[in-house]
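Thread: quick sanity check before group meeting

JM: Hey all, I'm pulling together slides for Thursday and realized we never actually wrote out the predicted structure for the chain we discussed last week. Dropping the sequence here so it's in one place. If anyone has concerns about the input, flag it before I start.
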Amino acid sequence: MIGNPDNMAKPLCAILCSIYTMAVASMDECESVFGESKEVLHARYSTFTRQALVNAAFMRTSDISVLVAFVLYIISISGHSDFESR
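JM (edit): ok, ran it. Output follows.
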């Protein structure tokens, strides 16, 4: 992740983590690009995203960045992140 997440604004951290999670969920070449399986990377980034959402108080916020981060996270875990197949 860019910089230290402890020094980053919580909404920004949540949106960045969710974007990373969504990117991994939509990639087929994780093994060749990152040297790890898609499942391992998705599990790791999903964990980061969930923690970032909790830190940003996603259940109590009206911050649009946090809400977008939550939607991206939900899409990434729904199994419908392969947009090319639609």
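AS: nice. The two ends are 30 Å apart (CA to CA). DSSP finds four helices and no strands in the chain.
JM: adding both to the slides.
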